[in-house]
Amino acid sequence: MAHETRTDIDLLDGEWYARQPYAQWAWMRDNAPVYWDEPNQVWGITRYEDVLAIEKDAKTFSSMRAPRPHGEPLPMMISMDNPEHQRRRSLVNRGFTPKKVQAHETTIRKICSKLIDDVSAKGECDFVWDIAAPLPLLLIADMLGFEPDVYDDLLRWSDDMIRGTTGTPTPEVQLAAMNAGIEFREYQLRVIADRRSRPPQDDLIST
Q: 44, 141, 148, 199: which has the fewest C-beta neighbours closer than 10 Å?
């Protein structure tokens, strides 16, 4: 059944989510639980039961496509169905056992302390930008086995790539995102070559 198309709903705009559009979500659940976002050419599923049913039906709703509309599929876990998804996930899960996670406690505390110290030195804080965004990225970098001296680059690459895929980026933002992707890929290739040149390390890259 056709539904009203609203100009105040933009499912691919990060700034739209930042504005906390609770009223729009409530309207979609009540009036258009399967919402067609015409400008972005995507469907938005708003009810828990429907999302759960879709997640369990990989035959009809395959993940084997680009994470975002109009993109090219990439060989990432998010773009895979079982059994390939489960095979990759089982490898990654080895790095997230209680014993493995506990082994990172000292580093995690150091990262948290540094983030808080940096905020204290500035005398002000945007909690999301200064704490919530970099913390998981730096923790994952540690688990992957990336060296701390590249952490600032990782934050820059991540920020630039995210900005390039949010909303309607300018050509300059798109170029920065492209360059960040290239630099990150080159860094990953160097890390992989390093791991292959010596005995396996106790990190996710070696896994």
A: 199
Residue 166's region, left for phi above 0, alpha for psi from -120 to 50, else beta, is beta
If we measure between CA atoms, which residue out of 135, 85, 86 comes closest to residue 113? 135
Tally Cβ neighbours within 10 Å of residue 39. Answer: 13
- Contact between 137 and 158 under an 8 Å Cβ cutoff? The reply is yes
List, for residues 137-183, the tens digit of each pLDDT value. Answer: 898 898 888 888 898 899 899 888 888 876 677 889 889 999 999 99
Amino acid at site 134: P
Q: Give the C-alpha separation, 44 to 28, whole Å.
A: 9
Kindly tell me the sign of the dihedral angle through the C-alpha atoms of 60, 62, 65, 66.
Answer: positive
Mean pLDDT of 13-21: 86
Model pTM above 0.85: no
The torsion angles phi and psi of 36, rounded to 5 degrees, stand at: -95, 115
CA angle in degrees (0–180, nearest 5) for 7-9-14 = 125
Please state, in angstroms and rounded to a whole number, the distance separating the CA atoms of residues 47 and 33.
6
Scanning the chain, the segments in alpha helix (DSSP H) are 14-18, 22-31, 48-55, 84-93, 98-102, 105-122, 127, 134-144, 151-163, 171-196
Flag whether pLDDT at 132 surpasses 80. yes
